[in-house]
Amino acid sequence: MTRRAARPARRRHLRWVLAAGCLLVAAALPAGSPAVGDGQPGPLRMLQMNLCNSGLAGCYTGRAVDRAGEVIRAEAPHLVTLNEICREDIGPLERDLADVHHGGAVVASFQAASDRRTGGPSRCRNGQEYGIGLLAHLPSGQRGHTTYRGLFPAQDPIDPEERAWLCLHAPGAFHACTTHLAAFDSAAALAQCVHLFGTAIPALHSATRRQPTLVGGDLNLRFGGTPDLRDCVPPDYQRLDGTGVQQILTTADVSVGPVRRIDMAGTTDHPGVLVSLTVNRPPDRST
Known about the structure:
This protein is α+β, with helices and mostly antiparallel strands. It has helices at 64-75, 90-99, 186-207, and strands spanning 43-50, 79-86, 105-112, 114-115, 130-138, 146-151, 161-162, 164-170, 174-180, 213-218, 237-243, 246-251, 254-262, 272-279. It has one domain: Deoxyribonuclease I, Chain A. It is globular, with a radius of gyration of 18 Å. InterPro entries: Endo/exonu/phosph_ase_sf.
């Protein structure tokens, strides 16, 4: 977890707004780019990792990105959700994912947290933007992809780091999202969780077409905790065995296989979470 020197700060309006209260920024692949293919269900391995790589927190080791690359090369996931990373951490991990999959394309997205003090992005100690990321292997035949992102309306009033969410839409296949919720104010974390599952993801479903939805992230909320993660997650979502505050959740139209915790060899303060899924894709009724 990353926390910079806390100080009272004036609240400011989010500069990025959607009518529903969340930002949606789209970035599509060019026409004809490879993506998820034939509408048939198939196995998908999803990996969640918090790399604690800002350089500002006590859990920083400087070795987490290398370890994450080792895990990706060993486990060959199709979808990777990443928290507490610097912008340039994405590139090496994208290449590692591409190396273990043949055909199709690997796509990467990054979303910086915001710094309330400056009005700009939060920064790692090395000066790079700090935030969350998504990697996905999209097999040949996929009809492009689009990313959606935003800052939460509710934030910890003391911590200057303003938390964000990031989603990827693979048409005809799935929606995948990640976030890193407030670490030091549980009420803010709960409000952010409510916004993600109650506003941001439903807006994504409305803007595109409802599909199986996969969410991985460090939610800083626990099932059975105070507050309880169940207070913000819709009842039709499945909770897969996370590692405390790290969670993977899916809609009910996803079949769940084995879940494993991944040893990060002391490079970060969170183990990885790997799950095998079968995404039961809806039939394509387009004409």
